[in-house]
Amino acid sequence: MVEFEFWWLLVIPFFFGLGWIAARIDIKQIISESTDFPAAYFKGIHYLITNQYEKATESFSEAVKANDNSMEIHFALGSLLRRTGQIDKAISLHLDLLENREMNVDQQESVKAELAQDYFKAGLYDRSEELLLSLTKDNYEQFKLNTLLEIYVKERDWEKAVKMASQLEKISGVSFRKEISHYYCEMAVSMIISKKYSDGSKFLLQAIEEHKNCVRANILLGDVRESQGMIDEAISYWRKIEYQKPEYLGLVASKIIKAYQAEGKINDGLSILSRYYDLYNLRTLLNVLYEAVISNEGPGSAEKIARNELIQRPSLLALDQLFQALAMNKNTQIDNIELIQQTIKNTISIRRFYVCNICGFKAKQFHWQCPACNGWESLPSEPRDIALDETS
Questions:
Q1: Can you give the residue ranges of every domain in the chain?
Q2: What architecture is the 37-155 domain classified under in CATH?
Q3: Between the CA of residue 8 and those of 5, 11, 14, what are the distances in Å?
Q4: Which strands, in side-by-side order, build the sheet including 384-385?
Q5: What pLDDT, in 10s, does the model give residues 64-115?
Q6: What whole-number distance in Å separates Cα of residue 143 and Cα of residue 220?
Q7: 175-244 is classed CATH 1.25.40.10
Q8: Does the reported pTM lie above 0.85?
């Protein structure tokens, strides 16, 4: 049995006293730090919370004048100026800090990071890049690589973008395989435009190596082979999309049918598109299949396709196709059929959009990269109907 030592009774109050003193010191420090911020600073925070950005900017400007030594208030004001589009004022604020303030290395890095964001927002990418590359602290590494990647994408410097994305992937643990595959596709497009098909094909094969489901690479490889007169190879690349992402088959349906037609194998092409449509029910496939049937087999066969679609999946598109086939059939008599069909076409053209899954941007044409938020493959492969009051 352990004997009780009476001197422990003296130790307990001693440690209690130390804790009380430490708590008092912490409280005093918190009070001291909070009183360093002028009242205008807290007003600015209130205006920010209530989305009154103009008043918030005025309050933070007053706070900077009242306490010019506080780096935190300078950064808050600079961020707000940048957010409200007053980039020139944000740049002046941060340049003034760098040029006229004595700072330690950590503070200098912080100001450079803020200034780099100002330059980026202003579109001065070369100046932003220079500042970002000068940052050496580990805590800025991911921010630096992220911003550099955005710069290289905007400048369309795809080789540097690949390098940055690869580095960012290593330190963040986030996959950039999809993005990197598109960077290689962009390099390939430049080669293809210059008719350097061999170099373009190498970049496209690299894109697939980086990301096996890179549909865009197979589409472009098919385009290259078609331009070289290798029709069978072109068809082979386009058909691979079924095993990558079949929802993208609508993007190559017209290419496939034209290639089979050029080979004198139109029936094979129609058979393949019919199978695709039965399996995946893509509206774009229906459009291409309908047009191909009406051109090669006549309005009678096309009418059957449209009627069947209208019964199974009623839509304005199917109704328009039915009326088109009926109008072309000389044995059919319907009053004002052209007027009805034109009304349907006008309605369809107003309501069908590709809608970005990230930012909601609406486009009438498909884009691999969203023009608004720059997301890759963020637009679905098939357009969807949008209510008239949603198109604005």
A1: 37-155, 175-244, 351-392
A2: Alpha Horseshoe (1.25)
A3: 6, 5, 10
A4: 362-363, 352-355, 384-385
A5: 565 556 677 677 777 778 888 889 988 988 888 888 888 888 889 998 999 9
A6: 34
A7: yes
A8: no
